[in-house]
Amino acid sequence: MSCTHDHSCEDHECSSDWSLYKHIDLPKVSALNESVSGSVKSVFKAWEQRLHSSGEHLESNEGDPELLVFVPFTSDVKIKSISIVGGPDGTSPSKLRVFINREGIDFSDAESMQAVQEWELAENLQGVLEYQTRYSKFQSVGNITLHFPESFGGDTTQIRYIGFKGEATQLKRDVVATIVYEIRPNPSDHKTKAETGGGFSQVE
Length: 204
What we know:
By secondary structure, the chain is α+β, with helices and mostly antiparallel strands. The chain has a single domain (about 10-170), classed as PITH domain (Jelly Rolls), CATH 2.60.120.470. It has helices at about 10, 15-20, 105-110, 175-185, and strands at about 30, 60, 65-85, 95-100, 115-120, 130, 140-150, 160-170. The longest helix is centred in the C-terminal third of the chain and has 11 residues, at about 175-185. The termini are far apart. About 30% of the residues are buried. InterPro entries: Galactose-bd-like_sf, PITH1-like, PITH_dom, PITH_dom_sf.
């Protein structure tokens, strides 16, 4: 879906403003059935770089177009839309199923579980299409798993870009706990001069 604003979003960078790229925990992103280990990380980039490629992309193993991509975030997010740029010659994914806040999903799980939402995809080689989420179901997303069951007839599935738009909601609980611990006063840092031999006592 294109932006409904009364201006060009390319000029006003609306898409960049809403991009969740900076909130993706990239080192922890992973994929099942990728032909080159770790290649999945190359498809996550800034919105304005979505069509720029140095040849790196995510591709399934030959003869098996199914892919499963796990994407954790550094903060909880609300996801408004998802954008997928696939490969040419029938290698773009033709369907997307998503699961939220479920870690360790494999292909067997994905096939048997009820997805939060599913989309029939179009071949989006120019990166102009976005798929709107059922927004009420995409609140407080700590991680998302993307299941691409099939391509448009190609022997493999290729993905050049995956993008999310929305907003960050709050810090992760473990990060918050660390911050609270760090800001908690340490009594040893607040001794009076009398306690340290400085000759002054605390004023009542």
